Amino acid sequence: MALAVLIAASLSAQPAQLVLGKDSGADLEIRASSGAKVTFSTTVGTVSGAQHQGGVVRARFNAPPLRVPSVALVLAQVDEGGDRDLYWVSIPLSGSDTMVIETKPGSRVEATVAGQMVGPVAAADNGTVRLPMVVPPGVRQATLKITDKLGNTTERPLDLEPPPFSRVRLAARAEAAVASSPLEVEIFVVKPDGTPDDEARVALSSPDGETSMRRRIAPGVYLAEYVPAEGESGSARLEAKANGQLATLDVPVRAGEPGARRSFWRMGSHGPWSFSAGILGGLGRSFDGATAGGMLGEVAVRLESSPLEALLDFGGNFLSEVDQYTGAPALAERSKTHAWLVQLGIRGSYEVLRALNVHASVGAGLQSQSVRTTLPLNLGRVEDSGLTTRLATAFGATYRIGPGRALAQVEFDWSPSRVAQYAGSTSSVQGMLGYLLNVR
């Protein structure tokens, strides 16, 4: 459901890319409730004519009066009920112009630009050729092919010398920063061709406080935090760097309430290499029909600014008593087992709504399984134990609340059968709930 809301709320542009000098603009569209205030802005060009019709807001992106390749980084800022959500789209703008080539009179000239052929065009008596070129952003070189009257052909690279353009933009998720309280900032980064850059090395800095990168939350969109210095008020400058480019943002800073102190738990809670720890409890059934319960301690370490966390889990699984070897009821045994475990894993997450992430994880490790068996015919009890491997996968969601995250997931555990005279296995499906506290 949350994923459907996210898709419905995404910002779109039609057409998705434009040719400057030929296309006048693109239609923008985003879904928003009737009570939301939607504000559009762009790095190049303009946005006009925003209209709210039911649950849809439409506007017009107007192409700039330029001829050189560029990319428009368009932002839709949606304010409603004290919350602010940001939605991004990039519109590649291909440059169009006529290039004059000088060669021998009567020669035939053609050029290949981004896989598209231009020409051939015959040179005039003065040896000049005028080639109408369409150059997408990110294309720096074309191939020129010249064939003279005698049929001699030469090919050479043609440096298009496109000027640089901005490929980084940032915006804040709130109107102002409050002293000693984190302000969430989104940084949008695109590749030279205008497509979102999911592998950019992004950094946020400020001379007026502390910053930390959290993770990528959408194609080309990176989430960071800024915390003003103690007692700071007025205005602060944020600087985002990615791919050798710099973008800046000035944000108002309001003084915090008297006596307010910076929270240790919030600082750096989601930055690169931050870690959290907590306890998870579960309840479900084994594949052999026993009631299964589990208790895990977990330590999670975020891998740089990626959406991945390395996991260390330790704890135990406990299964209710079951019958085994029931082919002859009089000779059936009743066995009860539990296992102490430790495993390593990795979890990938994706933010679908503010504070809400969905995730999937996989882990592998070892478990020490103990079995207590009641023998038939009043022959007594026996106990045994053994060491075995285990594998676990889980799917669920986390919600940021307080100094950490509430976690809910469905976990599938697999382990071998016939360990320590237990005919079945501890393999099970459990629903798990827990809370992870942000430690650093």
Please tally the β strands and state the result.
30
Q: And the CATH topology of the largest domain? A: Porin
Task: Name the helicity range.
Answer: under 10%
Domain module count: 3
Described by strand count, sense and barrel closure, the largest sheet is: 8 strands, antiparallel, barrel
Uncertain stretches: 1-8, 258-271
Tell me the number of helical segments per DSSP (H or I, 4 or more residues long).
1
User: Which percent range describes the beta-strand content?
Assistant: over 45%
Which whole number gives the mean pLDDT? 83
Radius of gyration: 31 Å
Major β-sheet strand ordering: 22-23-24-26-27-28-29-30
CATH class of the largest domain: Mainly Beta
End-to-end span in angstroms? 31 Å
- Morphology: elongated
Derived structural class = mainly beta
CATH architectural type of the largest domain? Beta Barrel
Describe the structure using short key phrases.
440 residues, mainly beta, Immunoglobulin-like, Porin, 3 domains, 8-stranded antiparallel beta barrel, 5-stranded mixed sheet, 1 helix, 30 strands, disordered N terminus
Write the layout of secondary structure elements.
Blueprint: H1 2-9, E1 12-14, E2 18-19, E3 25-31, E4 37-42, E5 46-53, E6 56-62, E7 70-80, E8 83-102, E9 108-113, E10 116-122, E11 128-135, E12 141-147, E13 153-159, E14 168-172, E15 177-178, E16 183-189, E17 202-205, E18 209-218, E19 221-228, E20 234-242, E21 245-254, E22 275-286, E23 291-302, E24 308-319, E25 322-324, E26 333-353, E27 356-374, E28 381-401, E29 404-414, E30 428-438
Parallel strand pairs: 2-8, 15-21
Antiparallel strand pairs: 1-3, 3-6, 4-7, 5-6, 7-8, 8-11, 9-10, 9-12, 12-13, 14-16, 16-19, 17-20, 18-19, 20-21, 22-23, 22-30, 23-24, 24-26, 25-26, 26-27, 27-28, 28-29, 29-30
